[in-house]
Amino acid sequence: MLFGVNSLFKRLYHLLCNSDRNQQEDYLTEIFAEVLSKEGLLHDFMNTYSEIKLSQLSIREITTQKTYAKQEDHHTDSRPDMMIRFSDNGNPHVLFIENKLGTGEGNIQLKRYADHLRSYELDGCQTHLIYITKLHDPKQKKDIISSGANTSFHQIRWFQIYNWLKDHRSELVNLFLEYMEEIQLNDSRRFVPQDIYAIQHMERLVRMMDACLEGRVEEIVTTLFNRSTGWTNRFDQLKKHNRYMKLNAQANLTEVNFGFYMTDNE
To answer: For 35, what's the count of Cα atoms within 13 Å in the CB-facing half-sphere?
Structure first.
């Protein structure tokens, strides 16, 4: 693994992840919890992204991946990504944060979390639920918070977190921002002139790449591997894997891919 190419957090992720499932959401949660606790940013985070205004916030507990036993009308246990207990001028608060990068919520996941927060509310706590997503995933508060409950609910996109953190730079935050850029959490979906220019010339670029992969290149690959080449679903690969490929299928269930890999390097 080449050090200096990827950020510290990305290197750690590749070292820690296993082949069983994608743990990137949990990994991101752990880093964000560290940032909120070590950098003292929870106070400004709540003042920025909730309707409450805090003055003397004191963190009592930050726990990630805490399991709550299912309630009577739940089909499964619940495990919010982050649970934070804090007080403000002596008033107790409990905050659940759920983080999503690709997939949406599970089976009534947010409503189950709100039900557990209701238990804290009955014990005298002010309760809050924040849903952070990479993609647009609109939710209605009335579908999540039960009638009579006072839990506040807020949705945030990760690019908003990225922009907010840029005003709170430190060594740890800078590393986190670098990692967020690498996994494209800084993408605000706002087009800049370069984007418009690229879209206008996309058809020409596709024709040029097709021309490069056909003709002489295709002849050489066919000769070397004794099989004809075919197109993969190249636009799907471009979207998911940042590559534009042709393939040469082999008899032993393997294939040779050749084409273009899109990188950030000039």
So the answer is: 24
What's the CATH number of domain 8-182, 3.30.70, 3.40.91, 1.10.600, 3.40.50? 3.40.91
Distance CA 133, CA 102 (A): 8
Q: pTM surpassing 0.90?
A: no
The span from the CA of 178 to the CA of 184, in Å, is: 10
The pLDDT profile of the chain, 266 residues, written as one tens digit per residue, is 333 445 657 756 765 665 455 578 888 998 999 999 888 899 999 999 988 889 989 999 999 999 999 999 999 999 999 999 999 999 999 999 999 998 788 889 999 999 999 999 999 999 999 999 998 899 999 999 999 999 999 999 999 999 999 999 999 999 999 999 988 899 766 777 887 888 888 889 889 988 888 888 888 888 888 777 777 788 888 887 888 888 878 877 788 888 888 876 65
Is residue 122 a contact partner of residue 94, using CB atoms and an 8 Å limit? no
Domain ranges (residues) in the chain: 8-182, 193-261
**Among the listed residues 219, 240, 241, the one whose alpha carbon sits nearest the alpha carbon of residue 228:** 219
Token pair 């209605």 in the structure block, residue: 140
